[in-house]
């Protein structure tokens, strides 16, 4: 009788399954051919996989080891979608048609790289501001006859949104210039509306942003209104900087490699576990069990140690 025997198998998770992405190892590739961020992204996607994603301090340290001499900027896959404006009410993004939205001159400009919420002024013009600025605001109430509720209490944008959702429907959404013309006569200074965007929320490969390593004072949007913002690693420190996407720099690509998960299990059986047929039957049973748990993208195989798969565990004294 074989008792308390160990077996080892490897589960390989393919790169196409996002929910198992934590089981993927990122292999970084340094490319010393300067390109714009968009050109670097295209090159990485054609040759490797994508521009580099970094989602932990450990990955940042590992990528830092791949860098060449200090004093350079090197593109990674993080970018700021400066045109990705969204409404708090409804799932649609901002649609621009026939002179709408009514931006004020040189707006939005994302000053200092920190402006991602929108105010309307007394003439109906829009501008971006830092969300942690206290302003009065305009709510929308689908059940109120007037629809537009002006609140003169000063609040941060997030607090204004929460207030509107608790007392009314939401921060106001402006559909077109006609509606904009109905709202702005109600106010006499800048008021929050429900338009916003997520700052630095996008990796080139679609991964969520869970880790950032900005340098001191970064991001700062030093290029002003005409700047497009992409992240680059500063090679002397390994910190990230906000750089104009049209500049040409070297870059780092990534390839996703399935990691190997090795598990040891104990078996107690009357069968001869050295029999290849029995070993294959065990694999089939494990495979069926994992599929019943909705785990379908894997591969199981035996690993030999000292020429054997199963090893008898010494009896322990009790």
TrEMBL record:
It holds the Pfam family Lectin_C. InterPro entries: C-type_lectin-like, C-type_lectin-like/link_sf, C-type_lectin_CS, CTDL_fold. SMART domains: CLECT. Residues 28-140, 143-254 form the C-type lectin domain. This is C-type lectin domain-containing protein. Keywords: Disulfide bond. It comes from the Eukaryota. PANTHER family: C-TYPE LECTIN DOMAIN FAMILY 20 MEMBER A-RELATED, C-TYPE LECTIN DOMAIN FAMILY 4 MEMBER K-LIKE-RELATED. It comes from Ilyodon furcidens (goldbreast splitfin).
